[in-house]
Design goal:
It is built from 11 helices and 13 strands. The chain is α/β, with parallel strands linked by helices. Helix 8 packs parallel to helix 11.
Length: 358
């Protein structure tokens, strides 16, 4: 009789259970994988949508203004806008196109002069959508050059292709080493120089000094080496800065006259739109900042920006702008004008422009 061997029923049941568990485990792994795949895509879509839909906090055309910070520039005015904290990496471009923007070395510099109107010019230029300007003064070429161009670039605001990156540091104009250092960075950089009647500029400079250190000697004392014989102390900083021809000569040793645009400080007050139009031309930009952006503030004695959309007040420069100058002996002013006359004439010849200072 044939003998048949039958499998143990318990073994068959165990194999079936294991097969079912394996199938369930495989399905579970597939489901989990699909879940993470789907949720990952959704999260990516949401992130991209949140970036693309993010409202711009700075329209750059004057509709909105950037948050104000408390870093002061050389004129004692708080720097405003992107990069004003002088902390690398904190600036952001809130135009909804951060991923396209990069930090670049500046293509234009406002190099001076102190108390000439550089802050006003910068604030007016910042209305232009194609200008990305550092709000504070980095003082790279005169004080922080040892930090290197990588540090300098990190200070700049992010900019899109076609936008002009710029900064202002008035001390550049009078610092001996600066022209060569700027040239080493870029031979093609565009330089903007705001100039003002050197006598008026010196008095404004002194007025700022005494607002911080009120116990210094009188202007009349500091302006002369010997007041009896009328010898001017041309090395006293407020007077020395006004020797424009002497300082411009150093810049012309490195850059062509065509690369330096001169802005009239007086014209910036009497005709801001006209001066801004010429600066926009110099930078190769469309004339977008026009007379519709300005009104004259009789109290301060200089132009302010008209009330932007979304703001309850017009935008004027800080309290340090337009303050009353210290009273100066008229005879001292007359002597200073005589002192500056030949220097001004030489400057006019170098500039190819007569600014009409007395």
């Amino acid at each position: 009789m044939a003998t048949f061997h039958h499998s143990n029923p318990t073994d068959r049941d165990i194999r079936r259970v294991l097969q079912k568990l394996l199938i369930i485990l495989s399905l579970g792994i597939i489901c989990v994988s699909l879940f993470y795949f789907v949720t990952g895509c959704c999260e990516s879509d949401l992130t991209e949508k949140s970036v693309s839909d993010r409202p711009a906090s700075d329209d750059r055309n004057g509709t909105f203004y950037k948050d104000v910070v408390t870093v002061q520039d050389e004129d004692g005015y708080p720097g405003t806008g992107e990069g004003s904290t002088l902390t690398p990496g904190l600036e952001t471009d809130n135009t909804g196109k951060d991923w396209k923007a990069t930090r670049r070395l500046p293509q234009a510099l406002i190099i001076g002069v102190k108390k000439g109107g550089t802050r006003a010019l910068l604030e007016f230029l910042r209305l232009h959508p194609d200008i990305r300007a550092l709000g504070s003064e980095p003082h790279f070429f005169d004080r922080h050059y040892a930090r290197g161009l990588h540090w300098y670039r990190s200070m700049m605001p992010k900019a899109l292709d076609g936008q002009v990156v710029m900064e202002k540091t008035p001390r550049y104009f009078v610092t001996v080493e600066t022209p060569g250092r700027v040239h080493s960075m870029s031979r093609d950089v565009k330089l903007i120089l705001v100039v003002r009647d050197p006598v008026t500029r010196a008095i404004s400079d002194y007025t700022q000094i005494i607002s911080k250190t009120p116990h210094i000697p009188a202007f009349e004392t500091l302006a002369f080496k010997n007041r009896t014989n009328g010898e001017i102390d041309s090395l006293w900083s407020p007077l020395w800065i006004g020797l424009y021809a002497q300082h411009l000569e150093r810049w012309l040793a490195w850059f062509s006259r065509a690369q330096i645009h001169l802005v009239s400080g007086e014209g910036l007050i009497s005709d801001p739109a006209g001066e801004l139009g010429k600066v926009q031309d110099f930078l190769g930009l469309q004339r977008i900042v026009t007379d519709k952006h300005f009104y004259f503030n009789k109290t301060k004695g200089f132009p302010c920006l008209k009330k932007p959309e979304g703001s309850s007040k017009p935008h004027c420069l800080g309290k340090t702008k337009g303050r009353t100058h210290a009273p100066i002996d008229p005879e001292v002013i007359r002597r200073l004008r005589e002192f500056y006359r030949p220097h001004n004439q030489r400057f006019y010849q170098m500039a190819g422009q007569d600014f009409g200072w007395q």
